């Protein structure tokens, strides 16, 4: 590491470390407006189709999974930075910590999805429908095995379990980080680094199975062991993009102007580039193996997703989620311009939504995504949910600092230089 | 060599030593540049900035570990290497895609796993790998090239204190090739920075010639490395009675049996197994049994249900009816079990003279114990399809002609009169007990007496000495041959009125010419006979 003397960090009470007032003022409008827009989108979507609200629940699930992936990505970011004892990321880590605590509101937002299991009969998850096996000509012996895992009770217990684990992890790392704002003890850093290893393992297990449960079981007879990684890849990409966007917005509004430097945007840009390709690699690997084997049992999921407009969406993902950002974020000259990194981050957050949409909506029994109204409803729902969570996050940020002010390595992070 | 040691006061009061060679000795040694030693990063960076600001460009800094910000301090321009890497990577992608498309989709089209010749998903892994490989080569060799490597040595190594650059000292070097280089000026500038050691870099006393033994070794290695290649080339143009040499056996000697080999796994000892009964060749799966048998199966199941069931079962071994399982418990003394692949003689039928082509007669075959006196042949009672199920167009007939030529003409002749090559040969060798192939132009074989379905069945299953061709000719092709045979029959039995107007004239012309030629030939023969008779008459006996 550089032997430069790091510049002395500002005092912990410096206003540069607090949430700017202009952003704090948005808390209530974002929460209230977001909630209304989300409910409006959900309501509009529920009206589409005649299958008892399957489309509405699918739209809601898409929005919920999208937000969940970002939140989980931020959780993983925090865990991995502790695990590898990274120094560069400390100035942006608090943003990720604030977002990862949103796993608690997400738990509440997931209640309608669990409720739809108990009230409806296969409203969202087709395996919940008692007639599913008969309607699709599935042998009873096979279906009985599936139902051992995919049944209301066990599914609910698992979902509660995932949220319990994530909440525990998020609160552990958040509370410790916030306490370090007060005390500045190195022992807290040591503790967080020590527990980051088991935390990462817990995270991987729960995220993988959550992906299987919430998204993969929409097609109950289909399976892909890569699926957890696929969801995770988009998730970690989204988290880095969010960090870039959030840092830029905070800086524009007056916070962290001297702390987050072009070097941090450079690193975030590098990681965004890397994870764009990682996402491409994982999703293509999943596709390639199934395409090559050409086994009907496995191809059904992709077959649905290459018919009609879904094929067009797949092509859009290839060109605009892979090739364009890959070429765009390749150059260090792009990465060293904070505005451009923020722009690519925002762009990729939209593309990540398209990816989640592509995962979930073809299984919704409208085939064509419900036409224009369906698309509008989906967009409203996700914009509303994102706004709601942003508002809540701003609320949390206002009560805390936006950077880990007394982290022992903060100075090193601020002084960090790439070549 | 005379050395003068000069003591000089420096700005901070310490003493520095400069080594200077006298002019007369200088001219032998080329001055490569001037190097200065520093003890800390900060002093090095400060010196770098001063050198940069003074306008020197051909400079270099040497440090034991990477120093952040040194590029900026020394004014080093961003390298062009990333662009080399990008170009190399894109070259890799293009190379991989072009190579695979050429090899698999154009030059030697090869079906792999049932995928299209040009399948991008399958080509992606190789494209990815070559992109990374070429990009890595670009980075590695590009870096070497931009650094002027490989070189035998760098003159700065001659400096005695330079060894510590890998330990705890930092060095700044200004090359004499720099446009602004001037020994005095550079020494003064460097002397102004916080250094205790400024030294000219010249070659040392070691020879700069490559030692002779190296050339010997290189020559030897180069010539030896050609030897394996020459051996391989020689082998490629020479013959050997020895079997091929396998360096790595890999999967060369497969234990799987080849065709015609013996296998102990089966009682009949054959490694090749016959088709499972009911096997349907690819593309031959038809739901239409009428099409596959030439029989109106609906009518047959009314007339002779057991036989209809047997026929169905021959195509679908799992088909069973109650009647069939009941029938099996009784002895089958009625119509013989019919296997479509065997050319069986029709019961009671006579070879070339089937008189009745009717199909309405009820067969009394189901009644056990009956003793029919003249049982009508099953070939006559079967409700054959009377109409070719294919839509007849030029393509069908052209294909029929092609297949007739391949399979049928060798016995029946190209014009269907029965004088194919086999018959010609048999006549020539005066084969005993030879039954000539039927002429297709007997009126017993015309469509009224010999329906299309019956002709189809004959082609498929054979008749008398003719084998069945259902194993060689696809079902649809057999119907096309039936259509062509009808056309052949018509061709030998048509009147000029049946020809279209446009072709009539040319045919009449051809006919007239042929008749004229025949007449001329006949006249010439007659004349020759006359001449011969006249000549014989002239000679006195």
Give a structural overview.
The complex is a heterodimer of chains A (419) and B (541). Chain A is mainly alpha-helical. Chain A has one domain. Chain A has 18 helices and no strands. In chain A, helix 4 crosses helix 11. The longest helix of chain A has 32 residues. Chain A is globular and about 70 Å long. Chain B folds into three domains: 204 residues, no CATH class; 200 residues, Cytochrome c-like domain (Cytochrome Bc1 Complex, Chain D, domain 2, Orthogonal Bundle); 33 residues. Chain B has 17 helices and eight strands. In chain B, a hairpin with a 5-residue loop joins strand 1 and strand 2. The longest helix of chain B is centred in the last third of the chain and has 38 residues. Classes of the chains: A mainly alpha (419), B alpha+beta (541). The interface between A and B is medium-sized, with 15 and 15 residues.
Summarize the structure.
The complex is a heterodimer of chains A (419) and B (541). Chain A contains 18 helices and no strands. Chain A has helices spanning 21-24, 27-46, 54-83, 90-100, 103-109, 111-119, 132-135, 140-149, 152-183, 186-214, 227-252, 262-293, 296-304, 308-328, 332-335, 338-360, 371-399, 410-414.
Notable features of this structure?
heterodimer, A: mainly alpha, 0% strand, B: 541 residues, two-stranded antiparallel sheet, 8 strands
Describe how the helices and strands are arranged.
The complex is a heterodimer of chains A (419) and B (541).
Chain A (H helix, E strand, L loop, with lengths): L20 H4 L2 H20 L7 H30 L6 H11 L2 H7 L1 H9 L12 H4 L4 H10 L2 H32 L2 H29 L12 H26 L9 H32 L2 H9 L3 H21 L3 H4 L2 H23 L10 H29 L10 H5 L5
Helix pairs in contact in A: 2-3, 2-17, 3-4, 3-9, 3-10, 3-11, 3-16, 3-17, 4-9, 4-11, 9-10, 10-11, 11-12, 11-16, 12-14, 12-16, 14-16
Chain B lengths: L2 E7 L5 E7 L1 H4 L4 E8 L2 H13 L5 E4 L7 H5 L6 H27 L12 H27 L23 E6 L7 H10 L4 E6 L9 H26 L51 H5 L3 H7 L1 H11 L6 H8 L48 H4 L12 H19 L8 H8 L23 H10 E2 L2 E2 L7 H17 L9 H38 L3
Antiparallel strand pairs in B: 1-2, 3-5, 3-6, 4-5, 7-8
Helix pairs in contact in B: 4-5, 9-10, 13-16, 15-16
């Amino acid at each position: 590491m550089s032997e430069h003397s790091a510049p002395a960090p500002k005092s912990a009470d410096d206003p540069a470390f607090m949430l700017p007032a202009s952003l704090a003022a948005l808390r209530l409008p974002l929460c209230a407006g977001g909630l209304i827009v989300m409910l409006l989108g959900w309501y509009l979507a529920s009206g589409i189709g005649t299958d008892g609200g399957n489309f509405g629940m699918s739209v809601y699930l898409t929005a919920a999974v999208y937000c969940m992936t970002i939140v989980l990505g931020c959780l993983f970011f925090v865990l991995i930075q502790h695990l590898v004892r990274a120094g560069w990321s400390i100035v942006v880590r608090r943003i990720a910590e604030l977002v990862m605590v949103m796993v608690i509101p997400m738990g509440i937002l997931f209640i309608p999805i669990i409720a739809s299991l108990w009230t409806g009969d296969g409203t969202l998850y087709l395996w919940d429908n008692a007639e599913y096996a008969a309607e699709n000509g599935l042998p009873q012996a096979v279906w009985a095995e599936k139902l051992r895992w995919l049944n209301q009770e066990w599914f609910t217990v698992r979902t509660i379990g995932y949220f319990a684990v994530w909440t525990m992890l998020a609160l552990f790392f958040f509370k410790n980080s916030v306490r370090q704002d007060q005390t500045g003890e190195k022992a807290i850093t040591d503790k967080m680094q020590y527990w980051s290893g088991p935390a990462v393992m817990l995270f991987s297990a729960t995220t993988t199975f959550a992906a299987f449960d919430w998204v993969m079981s929409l097609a109950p007879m289909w399976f892909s062991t890569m699926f957890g990684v696929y969801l995770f890849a988009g998730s970690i990409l989204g988290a880095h993009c969010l960090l870039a966007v959030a840092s830029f917005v905070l800086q524009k509004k007056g916070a962290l102007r001297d702390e987050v430097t072009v070097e941090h945007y450079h690193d975030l840009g590098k990681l965004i580039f890397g994870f764009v390709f990682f996402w491409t690699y994982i999703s293509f690997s999943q596709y390639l193996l199934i395409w090559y084997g050409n086994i009907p049992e496995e191809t059904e999921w992709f077959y649905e997703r290459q018919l009609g407009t879904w094929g067009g969406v797949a092509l859009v993902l290839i060109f605009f989620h892979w090739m364009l950002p890959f070429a765009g974020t390749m150059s260090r000259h792009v990465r060293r311009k904070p505005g451009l990194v923020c722009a690519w981050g925002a762009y990729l957050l939209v593309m990540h939504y398209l990816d989640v949409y592509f995962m979930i909506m073809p299984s919704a029994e409208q085939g064509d995504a419900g036409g224009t109204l369906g698309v509008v409803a989906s967009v409203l729902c996700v914009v509303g949910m994102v706004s709601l969570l942003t508002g809540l996050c701003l609320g949390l940020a206002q009560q805390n600092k936006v950077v880990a002010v007394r982290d022992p390595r903060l100075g090193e992070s601020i002084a960090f230089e790439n070549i | 060599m005379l050395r003068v040691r000069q003591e000089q006061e420096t700005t901070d009061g310490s003493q520095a030593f400069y080594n200077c060679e006298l002019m007369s000795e200088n001219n032998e040694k080329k001055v490569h540049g001037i190097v200065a030693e520093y003890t800390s990063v900060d002093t090095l960076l400060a010196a770098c900035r001063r050198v940069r600001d003074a306008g020197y460009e051909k400079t270099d800094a040497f440090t034991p570990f990477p120093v952040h910000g040194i590029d900026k301090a020394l004014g080093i321009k961003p390298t062009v290497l990333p662009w080399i890497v990008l170009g190399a990577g894109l070259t890799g992608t293009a190379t991989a895609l072009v190579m695979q498309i050429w090899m698999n989709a154009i030059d030697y089209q090869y079906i792999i796993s049932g995928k299209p010749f040009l399948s991008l998903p399958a080509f992606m892994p190789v494209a990815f790998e070559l992109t990374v490989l070429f990009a890595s080569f670009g980075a590695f060799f590009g870096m070497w090239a931009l650094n002027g490597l490989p070189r035998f040595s760098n003159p700065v190594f001659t400096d005695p204190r330079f060894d510590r650059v890998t330990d705890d000292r930092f060095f700044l070097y200004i090359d004499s090739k720099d446009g602004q280089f001037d020994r005095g000026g550079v020494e003064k500038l460097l002397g102004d920075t916080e250094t205790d050691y400024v030294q000219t870099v010249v070659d040392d006393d070691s020879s700069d010639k490559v030692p002779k033994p190296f050339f010997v070794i290189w020559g030897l290695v180069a010539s030896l490395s050609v030897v394996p290649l020459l051996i391989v080339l020689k082998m490629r143009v020479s013959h050997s009675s020895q079997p091929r040499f396998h360096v790595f056996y890999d999967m060369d000697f497969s234990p799987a049996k080849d065709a015609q080999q013996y296998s102990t796994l089966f009682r009949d000892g054959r490694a090749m197994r016959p088709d499972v009964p009911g096997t349907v060749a690819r593309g031959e799966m038809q739901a239409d049994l009428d099409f596959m048998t030439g029989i109106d199966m609906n009518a047959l199941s009314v007339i002779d249900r057991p036989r209809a069931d047997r026929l169905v079962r021959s195509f679908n071994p799992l088909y069973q009816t109650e009647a069939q399982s009941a029938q099996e418990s009784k002895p089958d003394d009625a119509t013989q079990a019919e296997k479509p692949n065997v050319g069986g003689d029709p019961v009671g039928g006579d070879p070339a003279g089937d008189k009745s082509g009717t199909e309405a007669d009820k067969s009394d075959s189901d009644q056990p114990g009956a003793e029919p006196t003249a049982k009508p042949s099953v070939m006559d009672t079967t409700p054959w399809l009377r109409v070719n199920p294919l839509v007849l167009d030029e393509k069908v007939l052209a294909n029929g002609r092609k297949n007739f030529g391949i399979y049928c003409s060798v016995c029946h002749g190209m014009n269907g009169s029965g004088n194919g090559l086999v018959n010609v040969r048999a006549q020539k060798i005066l084969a005993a007990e030879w039954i000539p192939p039927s002429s297709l132009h007997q009126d017993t074989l015309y469509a009224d007496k010999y329906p299309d379905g019956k002709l189809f069945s004959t082609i498929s299953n054979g008749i008398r000495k003719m084998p069945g061709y259902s194993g060689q000719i696809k079902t649809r092709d057999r119907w096309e041959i039936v259509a062509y045979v009808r056309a052949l029959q018509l061709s030998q039995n048509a009147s000029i009125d049946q020809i279209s107007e446009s072709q009539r004239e040319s045919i009449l012309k051809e006919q007239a010419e042929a008749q004229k030629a025949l007449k001329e030939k006949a006249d010439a023969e007659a004349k020759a006979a006359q001449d011969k008779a006249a000549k014989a008459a002239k000679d006195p006996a």
